[in-house]
Amino acid sequence: QVQLVESGGGLVQPGGSLRLSCAASGRISSINAMGWYRQAPGKQRELVAGITSSSMTNYTDSVKGRFTISRDNAKNTVYLQMNSLKPEDTAVYYCNADIRDYVRLRLRNYWGQGTQVTVSS
Q1: Where are the alpha helices (DSSP H) in the chain?
Q2: 18 band by pLDDT with thresholds 50, 70 and 90
Q3: Are strands 57-59 and 3-7 parallel, antiparallel or unpaired?
Q4: Sequence-separated (6 or more) residues with CB below 8 Å from residue 80
Q5: pLDDT band at 1; cut points 50, 70, 90
Q6: DSSP string spanning 46-60?
Q7: Taking Cα atoms as reference points, which of 75, 56, 59 lies closest to residue 67?
Q8: Residues 85, 88, 94, 96: is their CA dihedral positive or negative?
């Protein structure tokens, strides 16, 4: 079955950097839009960054100029480069993607398992 596998989370000091990766696996026909969401304790899940199949990008205002989303279609992977990290960036980060499976060509939305990012001194 199709699934998303994330990596790259961890503990970092304010001003530091992390690079998150999310690879889609399974019998995949194509991947449309992909994105990164985050959810902090007591807060709603929010879209951090999105990228279309043609590599058009969109960011929430709080991360513009600091985060960069990109994708490698040959590897079915989306990345989130996170620079100048702030304590308020602390959250569980989730990968999301619209994927059409190879067998039945069904378009479905998938979520990764989530990876913890903690920014603290």
Answers
A1: none
A2: very high
A3: unpaired
A4: 19, 20, 36, 48, 49, 67, 68, 69, 93
A5: confident
A6: EEEEEE-TT--EEE-
A7: 59
A8: negative
